Amino acid sequence: MPSKTSRSIEMRPAEAGDVAFMQQLYSSTRSTDARMGGCDNATENLLQGLQFKAQQSWFQTKYPNADLALITEHERPVGRLYVDYGPDELRILDICLLPEHRNRGIGLGLLRSLQAQGERLRLPVRLNVMLGSPAQRLLQRCGFEIRGVDGIYNVMEWMPPAGID
Where would I find the N-acetyltransferase domain in this sequence (predicted)? Predict the structure, then answer.
């Protein structure tokens, strides 16, 4: 797992006490298009809380050995990175930042670090990104290519350069 991306950005393993922050982070990634139209705020918060718990449960069931880290700036949480280091791939399960920390190069640094790991291990880096997500442009700039569509997600992949043995 990458440990630093810049002087003030660091990562640490997520802890039980980080759940409230991660739920807030999850809610911040839901665009107004993905929100439940017609619900009051309390109902929407309840539904998003249930969606967050379902997502966490699915990740833990499907990727029980994945690393979940909090991205911190000056020791304050600003995002999370969830990565499964499998035998055939590095799978980014989730990479997200609070809105005020986006477009500052943090995500780029994390992606480059994961690509460097993929290159060392000679493994592809893969993830699913929601259709229409602005993150797709960053991923394509980093060399990720769309390999297909799975429901509401583009399946994206970066392959390490072919090495000389």
Answer: 9-161
Give the pLDDT score at 41.
Answer: 78
Q: Tell me the β-bridge partners of 81.
A: 69, 95
Positions in the chain short of pLDDT 70:
1-7, 31-38, 163-165
Amino acid at 93: L
**9-158: CATH, from 3.40.50.12500, 3.20.20.140, 3.40.630.30, 1.10.10.10:** 3.40.630.30
CB count, 10 Å around CB of 2?
Answer: 20
pLDDT given at position 125: 98
The two structure tokens encoding residue 38: 């017609």
Q: How far is CA 32 from CA 27, 35, 44, 48, 57, in A?
A: 10, 5, 11, 13, 24
